[in-house]
Specification:
Strand content of chain A: under 5%
Radius of gyration of chain A: 24 Å
Number of helices of chain A: 14
Chains: A mainly alpha (about 350), B mainly alpha (about 280), C alpha/beta (about 350)
Oligomer: heterotrimer
Number of helices of chain C: 10
Number of strands of chain A: 0
Order of helices and strands of chain C: EEEEHEEHEHHHHEHEHEEHHEE
Largest sheet of chain A: none
Largest interface: A-B, 61 and 49 residues
Number of strands of chain C: 13
Bound molecules: adenosine-5'-triphosphate, iron/sulfur cluster, magnesium ion
Shape of chain A: globular
Radius of gyration of chain C: 21 Å
Helix content of chain C: 25-40%
Order of helices and strands of chain A: HHHHHHHHHHHHHH
CATH architecture of the largest domain in chain A: Orthogonal Bundle
């Protein structure tokens, strides 16, 4: 039952975190300069309108009551209303979320494909030239400002060399019917290979911008934990069996390093949502990030805070999933649930 | 074996490699530049000269000019103070918050520790950039807002690490000894435990500066941090973005300045970390 | 006492008693490690042999270099520099290529380590870990699994067939040590190096594991190099004993003779400290002081600061090797002019 207990611990922590975030957002709403009702009613509203908005939003109630109402609204999934579009923030975000998810999935795949082989080779040939170079490349890659990398890649690959599209998610007139909100997946569902390749071409640069710092971090952690396992007492018996370096790395060090790496990847994927604010804006992609950036630009504070809440929820869920996967990978915990030796 | 007496190990000689010395030198130079940058930059970098807009790099303007005809190279030099010092300020501010939280958690009663660490956990799992964005938006866009927002969201990791080390230090014999001698808890904390835990933080600071510089520039780029015409590097990129297709160097140069700083501090962090934990060495 | 010993400075006369056919012959093995500031000699000019089926114990205080020596025999630690000769069944191990050396491991020589808790991969099933030695040699999955099962049966692991697919955390300490033994034995090596195989276990389990080892060693005529702190174990198990101090072998003799007539002051100290066989070396108190660290060994005889019989010569001249009438190979000025 250790397994269920650990998962329920994580669940409780997630709920607490979301509660903390909601409280933070509530405090921020209270801190918005100016009269809240006035802001919510829009700049041109007359006093009666402001008063009715205040009543509708419950702003005439005591603060504690407002706070409880706010939490109840969050529980119902009401993240507030955009002052600019007058639409619920949740509706707007739900429409653009798949596009962000698509980007994050691609970025994680690319990042993993870069980081894992690099770390495995570096750990196998520790101290050799490749290891040293890879480490410096990783430090450098992790220290790139994402938005600047996005601008530069976009300019050179898109404008100068014209290898990739510059911005957007698909060429004009090529889009497949919107089913999932992810252009690549929609194209596949429609069986339209050219449209798929087209969407992929639009995806590649932004995905790389995310993939580089992602790969840098994953590389560093994976290399360090591979080396940790290789230096541990566990490896001497394996060496004494006559195992080759590649066997030690792939069969023993890698599985044992996977646990910390997967939880880090969860954290990093969560962090990508934040980075999306910058990258989606640069590449003019639909998404949670560009929604946030637009709301900032339009000074639509309610939309910003609603989106902050939304992203917070998303990040917590990603972390929760990564935690659960980590738990499931570990037979010491898994075993007690599913019974030993069952194959 | 129980017979072994603790032998005083001779203090390890520093002998740094050429690579390590280079990184130290670069970091020192970057600090120096930030210190004197605004003093050595010519005054005309703050005024526009519409006759010289968007010049490409040349002997006269090493990195060209921006859309206001201001010399980009000298604006970078002048802006290094804002960019680096604002970053350092953020790290100092949240380190102080983290230290206070960790100290309270260590000396306080159990429930205080429990409460503070839960709050820390919550802080750790929130997306820092996004929450900062929210805070900075509410405070109104400015470099100060960016600094405050990042200071308010950056502390949990410091608090968590510091509290762990403080707990370990508290359990060491010399602390126990001092307590028996009647040294007060607070004094013990401030005079012994905190200083003993700080060397953990020093390694972290270098990495934090690298990382924070990227986020701070990001906030400026979105428009909630420093505002044009400030020569803060993120703001410079944001301002030059519109003319990217005719003057890409105006975007590339400030970004490169950020990269140089962030990479230098990241390499410094890497060196310090490997020195603490030689098992990571290549 | 020193009068009638044979002086052998460097040249060792052929031992009088009959030895089993040599399997392992170590000559002038030195082990160095490069630290940040200097080269440190961990083991200095060690020579010894192990015959086929012979059981040899290596004893000494912590830090004397036992594990470093044991690992050097299989070239397990790539951070140290080895010099001298390690002859195993006619092959000089130190001149083998890495892949040739890997082929020796598991197959010709197996090793068991101190802590069974940390010696197993927590994420791999017991069966896979035992069979791995064979899988590396290209033996089919089914055959390897069958042989793993056989060895676990031989080591009296109950319900071994059911437990092949369990993970290490489901095993008790004693059971894990049997698994670790099985990993070393499944390749049917000629030599088993056991580095404190029972230290981490409680006394009853220790005994059972040693009995098993004893039985298997006899049945398979398996040579064993047993490294231990525990003099009680040595007496019951080993044919011959080597005493190590500060990276050198200071005394070597047949077990019965060594216990009856210890020659080197260090050995005597060790044995005096063990009035009962169940007291381990690391709990003894009778030798004052602490062993030196390899980086700062005393001059002359490295034992002189702690020796109750030390003479003027001891602090300046390193004693050579001598053979006493009892057949002990000793490094001490009491037994020679050296
Ligand atoms: N990697 C290393 N770097 C520096 N010194 C080392 C290293 N490995 C071992 N040593 C030193 O070599 C000496 C011998 O160590 P070794 O582990 O062989 O001792 P031991 O006799 O097996 O002791 P124990 O009974 O504690 O296992 C010790 O002084 C140890 O400090
Ligand atoms: S050589 Fe001298 S100091 Fe060393 S053991 Fe013999 S008597 Fe003692
Ligand atoms: Mg040892």
């Amino acid at each position: 039952m250790a397994y269920l207990r650990l998962i329920s611990q994580r669940l409780v922590m997630t709920v607490l975190t979301l509660w903390g975030l909601a409280t933070l957002v509530f405090i921020m709403i209270k801190l918005i300069p100016g009269d809240e009702a006035q802001v919510a009613a829009g700049p041109g509203a007359n006093p009666e309108q402001v008063a009715s908005v205040a009543k509708r939003l419950g702003l005439d109630l005591p603060v504690l009551q407002q706070y409880l109402n706010f939490l109840l609204r969050m529980l119902r999934g009401d993240l507030g209303t955009s002052v600019v579009s007058s639409k619920p923030v949740l509706t707007e975000l739900a429409a653009v979320l798949p596009s962000t998810i698509e980007l994050m999935i691609f970025a994680s795949i690319i990042g993993t494909l870069i980081a894992f082989p690099m770390a495995l080779v570096a750990a196998s040939y520790r101290g050799k030239a490749f290891d040293g170079i890879a480490r410096i490349v990783a430090v450098t890659g992790g220290a790139m400002p994402a938005f600047w990398l996005a601008l530069m890649l976009q300019f050179f690959f898109g404008n100068v060399w014209r290898i990739t599209p510059i911005s957007g998610q698909h060429s004009f007139g090529i889009a497949s019917p919107n089913v999932t909100g992810m252009p690549t997946l929609d194209a596949l569902l429609a069986g339209d290979i050219p449209a798929f390749l087209d969407a992929l071409a639009y995806l590649i640069l932004p995905a790389f911008v995310f993939a580089i710092p992602f790969a840098a971090q994953v590389f560093r952690l994976l290399r360090a934990s591979l080396l940790g396992v290789l230096a541990s007492d566990m490896m001497l018996p394996v060496r004494a069996k006559g195992a080759s370096t590649s066997r030690m790395v792939l069969r023993h060090a890698l599985p044992n390093s996977l646990l910390p790496t997967v939880s880090l990847m969860g954290v990093l994927v969560g962090g990508m949502v934040g980075g999306a604010i910058l990258v989606e804006t640069v590449f003019a992609r639909r998404g949670v990030g560009s929604f946030l950036a637009n709301s900032v630009a339009l000074k639509d504070t309610y939309a910003v805070l609603g989106a902050v809440m939304f992203v917070g929820i998303a990040v917590c869920l990603v972390n929760l999933v990564a935690d659960i996967i980590t738990l499931m990978l570990d037979p010491r915990i898994r075993g007690t649930q599913f019974g030993a030796g069952a194959k | 074996m129980t017979l072994v007496l603790p032998t005083a190990s001779p203090r390890r000689k520093a002998n740094f490699t050429a690579y390590e010395l280079t990184v130290f030198g670069v970091v020192a130079a970057l600090f120096l530049l930030a210190l004197i940058g605004p003093m050595i930059a010519p005054a005309d970098i703050y005024t526009s000269n519409m006759l010289e807009t968007l010049f490409p790099p040349s002997a006269e303007h090493w990195l060209g000019t921006d859309d206001q005809g201001r010399d980009i190279f000298w604006r970078l030099i002048a802006g290094s103070q804002l960019s680096l010092f604002a970053t350092v300020l953020v790290v100092i501010l949240y380190s102080i918050i983290g230290m206070i939280v960790a100290t309270l958690a260590t000396v306080g009663p159990r429930w205080v520790d429990e409460l503070l660490m839960r709050v820390t956990d919550i802080g750790l799992s929130l997306p820092g950039l996004v929450v900062s964005l929210g805070i900075a938006t509410v405070l109104g866009p400015s470099l100060q807002s960016g600094i405050i927002a990042l200071a308010l969201t950056g502390w949990p990791m410091t608090a968590r690490i510091l509290r762990t080390t403080m707990r370990q230090t508290m359990e060491q014999p010399f602390v126990e000894g001092a307590r028996i001698l009647g040294v007060s808890r607070t004094r013990l904390m401030l005079k012994h435990v905190l200083p003993n835990s700080l060397d953990v933080l020093i390694v972290k600071w270098a990495g934090d500066i690298s990382f924070t510089m990227l986020i701070l520039a990001g906030l400026s780029f979105i428009g909630v941090g420093a505002q044009p015409p400030s020569p803060e590097w993120g703001a410079m990129i944001s301002g030059a973005r519109g003319n990217m297709s005719i003057a890409w160097w105006a975007v590339a140069a400030p970004g490169a300045a950020i990269v140089i700083n962030a990479v230098a501090f990241a390499l410094l962090a890497d060196i310090l970390q490997v020195r603490r934990d030689p098992s990571l060495r290549a | 006492m020193g009068v009638d010993t044979i002086l052998t400075d460097g040249i060792i006369p052929a031992p009088v008693r009959r030895r089993p056919e040599a399997l392992l012959q170590v000559e002038q093995l030195s082990i160095d490690i490069a630290t940040r500031d200097a080269n440190v000699r961990l083991v200095d000019n060690v020579s010894f042999g192990i015959g086929r089926g012979e059981r040899v114990a290596l004893v000494g205080e912590s830090g004397s270099g036992k594990s470093v020596t044991a690992q050097a025999l299989m070239r397990l630690n790539s951070r140290v520099k080895l010099s001298g000769r390690v002859n195993f069944d006619g092959k000089d191990l130190l001149s083998l290529s890495p892949s040739q050396m890997a082929a020796m491991r598991g197959q010709r020589m197996g090793m068991v380590f101190q802590d069974p808790m940390s010696s197993l991969d927590p994420l791999m099933t017991i069966g896979d870990q035992v069979a791995e030695t064979l899988r590396i040699r290209g033996i089919s999955k089914r055959n390897a699994r069958q042989r793993a099962l056989d060895v676990l049966d031989e080591l009296k692991v109950e319900r071994a067939a059911e437990r092949l697919d369990s993970f290490p955390h489901e095993f008790s300490g004693g059971m894990r040590q049997r698994v670790v033994l099985a990993m070393a034995l499944v390749g049917e090596p000629d030599l088993l190096i056991a580095d404190e195989p029972t230290t981490a276990l409680d006394v009853r389990v220790q005994e059972r594991v040693l009995d098993l080892l004893d039985e298997i060693s006899r049945r398979r005529s398996l040579a064993v190099l047993l490294i231990t702190h525990d003099m009680g174990i040595v007496a019951g198990f080993a044919d011959r004993v080597m005493v190590m101090y500060s990276g050198r072998i200071v005394e070597e003799n047949e077990a019965t003779l060594l216990f009856a007539e210890p020659q080197h002051p260090y050995t005597r100290g060790l044995l005096e400290a063990v009035p009962r066989a169940d007291v381990t070396v690391d709990r003894l108190r009778s030798i004052p002081g602490a062993p030196p660290v390899p980086a700062a060994r005393p001059s002359g005889c490295t034992f002189h600061p702690r020796c109750d019989r030390a003479m003027a010569i001891c602090s300046s001249v390193e004693p050579g090797e001598a053979i006493t009438p009892s057949g002990a190979r000793v490094r001490c000025h009491l037994y020679g002019a050296g």
